[in-house]
Amino acid sequence: MSTSSGPVTVPATTSAVTLLAANPKRSNAAIYNGGTGTLYVSLGTTVSSSVFTIAMVAGSYYELPNGGNSGVYSGVITGVWSATGGTGANVTELT
Predict the structure, then answer these.
(1) pTM score
(2) Best exposed site among 6, 37, 51, 68 by fewest CB in 10 Å?
(3) Mean pLDDT of 18-32
(4) Which residues are CB-contacts of 23 (< 8 A; sequence separation ≥ 6)?
(5) Which residues 6+ apart lie within 8 Å of 58 measured at CB?
């Protein structure tokens, strides 16, 4: 049975910010970009507009992919926006 730890809102910023801390108990996570700019998301600690895992335009939604036998990614997830308007990211983690 999964439990949810969110959603929590992470304000939009043009500096790198942690969206989710590493969590070995994570079974899934979802991110919604409520910002006005593109949210660059990295499955790791390094993120920029040129180094990222996925670019999320305003209003888009992303769920971590299932890694098969290894499960979902459980490390730190970071983000940075191209602009600071809007509500930021709504982030939900399932454990």
Answers:
(1) 0.92
(2) 68
(3) 96
(4) 74, 93, 95
(5) 33, 34, 35, 36, 37, 38, 86
